[in-house]
Design goal:
By secondary structure, the protein is of the alpha/beta class. The protein has two domains: 294 residues, Rossmann fold; 174 residues, Alpha/Beta hydrolase fold, catalytic domain (Rossmann fold), CATH 3.40.50. The chain has 18 helices and 14 strands. Strand 13 and strand 14 form a beta hairpin. Helix 4 packs across helix 9, helix 6 packs across helix 8 and helix 12 packs antiparallel against helix 18. The longest helix is centred in the C-terminal third of the chain and has 24 residues. The chain is globular, with a radius of gyration of 21 Å. The chain starts with a strand and ends with a helix.
Length: 472
């Protein structure tokens, strides 16, 4: 027997595994292609016959991670145009009892890669512990974050906001409580979660938020449009809806690959970003975090930069390259001196990596914790993997949060990671989702954060003087 449920658009046939019912590939909006391409998401059409919801839906158009990162982070490609889908995991007995808390997971991938079907994002561990888990796909790259004439800004964010509305509307059919929705995301997904808090319409549907290693900035259109304008020039089309909609997604992806070339963050590779916009993102995600009254769990990893820079690349950064990079990033001499002091014995590359980590990810998390008046729980993930020289790198915490260290995805990043750390970190996340209390003192009262390393401790912000010098 397969589990079934009925939502507003029709009946669903799911799959039950070890006491967990899962319903996959459920349209929360119509396919964003054809006449709907480069437009805001529109409602999904209802269906007549029961819909088979035992397989994930298609992924948003994307290319695999290139080079070294491709050996560390998994990629996934499921063909098809119905990419705006949700997946739900729920305890099999949920419909027989009280409504359960809900978490909506938003995957990362620099706004141009990733997908909910990656095995590390399986929601079974959360459902096992009494949480209705929902994951989604949304438009990526040129389809979701282009800045073009005649195209609404931040279409990928619009998709996520539509998914949140869908969860609020439908989740009671799965045994979830629409008044207890926690939004959670990592990297670009964390940025999108913070952006939801910056929108009054979305903020009203959120009870709690979790932001893992998420940038909290957004750019004015005059700046964020440069990437799209350059793509248009490469493709020989105007930077308009008509120009881009007349091209196959694969053509946009090829042009994007050419645009990036072999560049890195350090050498100026252009990146998709969120765009400030009165309609879709009126304030920055950072401002949204500060204004929100919901409890927030937020943090970053100590060595985020090691995902992007291999040890040999870090070692090759000379004093001159270091100087040029810090000038380009507008890092003050005071901050450079403070970081050199805190990281004595480290080469130029390692110090630069720490500066980039703290400027982009760790610093904004600490600033949010400092500036918020609502309950805020801050953390830093410090456990280091020896694999690929990654250390406490970007995305390493995912296997721990999901209690999924045995998945192939997690094994790409670490050999023999401590299961006890995963159990505790996952339990802390579940507790926060259920209660709004992560299990340690809120930052506003204690000025301390939880450090997840070989031991789990609470401490004042590490290297806070250097961080203050960097953040100005």
């Amino acid at each position: 027997m397969h589990p079934t449920t009925r939502i507003s658009t029709g009946d669903l046939i799911g799959r039950s595994v070890h006491g967990i019912d899962r319903y996959l590939g459920i349209p929360y909006a119509a396919s964003p292609f054809g006449e709907r391409r480069f437009k805001k998401p529109e409602p999904a059409a209802p269906w007549v016959d029961p819909r088979d919801a035992r397989e994930f839906g298609p992924t948003s158009p994307q290319t695999p991670y290139p080079g070294r990162i491709g050996t560390i982070l998994p990629s996934i490609d499921r063909p098809g145009e119905d990419i705006l889908t949700a997946n739900v995991w729920v305890p099999s007995a949920a419909l027989d009892g009280e409504s359960l808390p809900v978490v909506l997971w938003v995957h990362g991938g620099a706004f141009e890669r990733g997908g909910a079907a990656l095995n590390i994002y399986d929601g079974s561990s959360f459902a096992r512990d009494g949480v209705v888990f929902v994951s989604i796909n949304y438009r990526l790259g040129a389809e979701g974050f282009s800045v073009l004439e005649g195209v609404p800004r931040n279409l990928g964010l619009e998709d996520v906001a539509e998914a949140l509305r869908w969860v609020h509307r439908e989740i009671s059919r799965f045994g979830g409580d629409p008044a207890r929705i926690t939004v959670m995301g990592e990297s670009a997904g964390g940025s999108l979660v913070a952006a939801l808090l910056a929108r009054p319409d979305s903020r009203a549907l959120i009870s709690k938020a979790i932001v893992q290693s998420g940038p909290t900035s957004a750019e004015p259109a005059a700046k964020s449009s440069k990437l799209s304008e350059d793509l248009a020039k490469r493709l020989g089309v105007p930077a308009t809806r008509e120009g881009f909609a007349g091209l196959e997604p694969s053509a946009l992806l090829r042009a994007r690959t050419d645009q990036v070339g072999g560049k890195s963050i350090l050498s100026g590779a252009p990146s998709y970003v969120l765009t400030l916009d009165e309609d879709t993102l009126p304030i920055t995600p950072a401002e949204g975090l500060v204004q929100a009254t919901q409890p927030v769990l937020i943090g970053a990893n100590t060595q985020e930069y090691r995902l992007w820079f291999a040890p040999e690349a870090l070692a090759a950064i000379s004093g001159l390259k270091f100087f040029i990079a810090t000038k380009a990033l507008k890092i003050s001499k005071k901050a450079v001196a403070a970081y050199r002091k805190d990281w004595q014995g480290s080469n130029h590359g390692e110090v630069l990596g720490q500066l980039i980590t703290d400027r982009l990810l760790r610093g904004p998390a600490i600033l949010a914790a400092r500036n918020r008046s609502a309950p805020t729980y801050a953390y830093e993930f410090t456990w280091k993997t020896a694999k690929h020289g990654l250390g406490a790198t970007h995305a390493l915490e995912l296997g721990f949060v999901f209690d999924a260290l045995g998945t192939d995805d997690a094994k790409l990043m670490a050999d023999n990671p401590p299961q006890s750390l995963a159990e505790q970190m996952h339990a802390d996340w579940v507790r926060f989702i259920k209660t709004g209390d992560a299990g340690w003192a809120a930052f506003g009262e204690s000025k301390k954060l939880r450090l997840y390393g070989e031991a789990i401790t609470e401490a004042a912000v590490p290297r806070d003087a250097a961080l203050d010098a960097l953040l100005g």
